[in-house]
Design a protein that fits this description.
two-stranded antiparallel ribbon; two-stranded parallel ribbon
Length: 266
């Protein structure tokens, strides 16, 4: 400011940087926190409006599930997790996830340079009833609600001068989630087939996490889906695996299903 008044260049001192730091408010971290709180604990934006309610069979199954969250936290070395509800209940609601964040450099590539861009990769884990495009619209509405102007291409110099907070949003396609109701006419025969294959009582979970285009079977073909993977199979990650025990169980399960009588749809 002094250089502008006198017309003479002045070196930037530490005091100048500290003074500037007090005036500049970082926005990215705060935005992510508000976005996650918005998605997890509020429904002002309608984030949960399209979630289809559970039927009697699902509600009964939830009440019968044992407590597994403590063991999962121990296995995954997590001191705490978000929300107070059990994981099986939280999986019934959509979630906003930060898959990656990039700005500046670290390690031996770190430099005394203030980065001018911060990039993030987000995804929304949908649940049965959510429309992918509608959910993206809700996220964009939240971004605008935090004071950002959304652009689709890299902002021009004019846009940078006009808007204090800019966010370039690149939308990618998705597909709806799938869930077969435990009250479906074909559910009980499948449950009996699973009991027969396992030789034990089984746990009924209304829905699972993950992203697969299973709606092609449940919606277009009207057929239920029966998974066989182990809970720690690291889907979409290094060392993706399936236990030999689960593979053997899966073979017996599929054989049991293929040789049973299912009620025919009317």
């Amino acid at each position: 400011a002094e250089a502008l008044k006198t017309g003479k260049p002045e070196p930037i001192a530490t005091a100048d940087l500290l003074a500037a730091r007090k005036k500049v408010k970082p926005s990215t971290k705060e935005w992510f926190q508000t976005a996650r709180n918005y998605a997890l604990y509020a429904n002002q934006s309608g984030f949960y409006d399209d979630v289809l309610p559970l039927g009697p069979g699902e509600r009964d199954a939830l009440e019968r599930l044992p407590e597994v969250d403590r063991g999962l936290r121990e296995e995954l070395r997590l001191a705490a997790t978000e929300g107070d509800a059990p994981l099986a209940e939280r999986l019934l609601l959509p979630s906003l996830n930060v898959r990656g964040f990039q700005s500046g450099a670290v390690g031996d590539k770190a430099r005394n340079v203030i980065p001018n861009v911060a990039r993030a990769s987000l995804d929304i884990r949908l649940v049965h009833g959510n429309d992918p495009d509608t959910m993206l619209d809700l996220v964009e509405a939240h971004i605008r609600g935090q004071g950002f102007t959304i652009v689709r291409e890299d902002p021009t110099d004019e846009e940078r001068r006009e808007h204090a907070q800019l966010a370039k949003v690149v939308r990618q396609g998705g597909y709806p989630a799938a869930r077969t109701s435990l009250d479906h006419p074909q559910a009980q025969p499948l449950i009996e087939a699973a009991r027969l294959a396992s030789g034990n009582e089984i746990l009924l979970v209304p829905t699972l996490g993950g992203s697969l285009p299973l709606y092609l079977f449940t919606e277009r073909l009207g057929k239920p889906i029966v998974p066989i993977a182990n809970h720690d199979n690291n889907q979409h990650a290094p060392d993706e695996n399936i236990r030999l025990g689960n593979l053997a169980y899966g073979i017996e399960l599929m054989a049991s299903i293929l040789t049973m009588d299912l009620p025919r749809p009317r």
